[in-house]
């Protein structure tokens, strides 16, 4: 499994993860890390990790997008369903590490952090928008379509707040807490649908 993880990251995921890492660093440079109010911290987390989800999860659909794929590592065969599910799991874990690192940096910078709340909000944001993009990409068989829908949705949310449970910045504007729970459930459902569709197509 370790060999599989090493090869997957090196061959397929490194550029995606590097782009997400640089995005977080860019966010720190632009918005700062020191002595921020909690409102500023959550604004950073929602803004940046929405985009992280858009990039990281949507990009997975386009890797090895062929009809038959078997990964052979150390004489072991891994079918495409196994590979695809693990790419999603690796990406979720990597996103968790990015979120954890960002919150720790804010804490060290003496900014106001509500750790568990901010952690869950950030994870929900990345998975919610990312799963929507993945679903669109899988249904249309085009990662570009998923990216365009996700980016358009993101921009609409920047301009309009009256989107209820579909709003991407609900924590920034103090929407009810149940919204992020619903979005997290939707994200899990969409990721499950993507896996089912991917398995049928392959």
Automatic annotation (TrEMBL):
What parts of the sequence cross the membrane? 12-35, 47-63, 84-107, 119-137, 149-169, 175-197
Record key words, sorted: Membrane, Transmembrane, Transmembrane helix
User: What protein am I looking at?
Assistant: ABC-2 family transporter protein
